[in-house]
Amino acid sequence: MAAKMIILAACVAAALRIQPAPAYKPAYSAPAYPAPAYPAPAYSAYAPEPAYAPAPYSFEYAVNDPTTYDVHSQAESSDGKTVKGYYSLIEADGTKRIVEYTADDYGFNAEVKKEGTPSYSAPAYKAAPAYKPAYSAPAYSAPAYPAPAYPAPAYKPAPYKAY
């Protein structure tokens, strides 16, 4: 048992022995480059952001796609200080959500309204037309070879063993 402890201690000591890393010595010296022959660029402070006067605008759009049931619209206008607008959309339950909003120096204010009663029925889809091939099916004659004739299988019952 003592021999095992001595061997274990020797293995641990060998594993923990710390050796310094070998010194790296390059085979050649670093190259020397001459100083650049042009002057360094002079950086100035960033130009201030130009201040543009508020520009009035107005836009409006609407989408009505019966294939995907996507129905929505938006309109917005600004006089340069106050933004007013609305948007509306048909939600999945069939109701119409209308949001009227105003944004000015006091912040953003939105009023949400809902019109209609929710209905959770699936939309009515048209059935696909029945498939009709563009050509008639080819008429094949019966095969030219005779049908194979096999003898009927004959089964013999297994013998009964009484134990």
Break the fold down into its secondary structure elements and pairings:
Elements: H1 2-16, E1 57-65, E2 70-78, E3 83-90, E4 96-104, E5 107-115
Antiparallel strand pairs: 1-2, 2-3, 3-4, 4-5
Model description:
It is a single chain. This protein is mostly beta strands and about 160 residues long. It has a domain at about 55-115. About 10% of the residues lie in helices and about 25% in strands. The protein contains 1 helix and 5 strands. It has a 5-stranded antiparallel beta sheet with strand order 1-2-3-4-5, with no helix packed on it. It is flat and about 105 Å long.
Summary?
The protein has 163 residues and is mainly beta. It has one helix and five strands, in the order αβββββ. The mean pLDDT is 85.
| Oligomeric state of this protein | single chain
The total count of strands amounts to 5
The spatial strand order of the largest sheet comes to 1-2-3-4-5
Which structural class fits the helix and strand makeup?
A: mainly beta
Q: Overall pLDDT, averaged?
A: 85
Name the beta content range: 25-35%
Shape: flat
List low-confidence stretches: none
First CA to last CA: what distance? 65 Å
Please summarize the sheet with the most strands: 5 strands, antiparallel
Order of helices and strands: HEEEEE
Radius of gyration: 45 Å
Query: How much helical structure, as a percent, in the residues?
Result: under 10%
Alpha plus pi helix count: 1
Protein name: Insect cuticle protein,Chitin-binding type R&R consensus
InterPro entries: CHIT_BIND_RR_consensus (IPR031311), Insect_cuticle (IPR000618), Insect_Cuticle_Struc_Prot (IPR051217)
Keywords: Cuticle, Signal
Signal peptide: 1-23
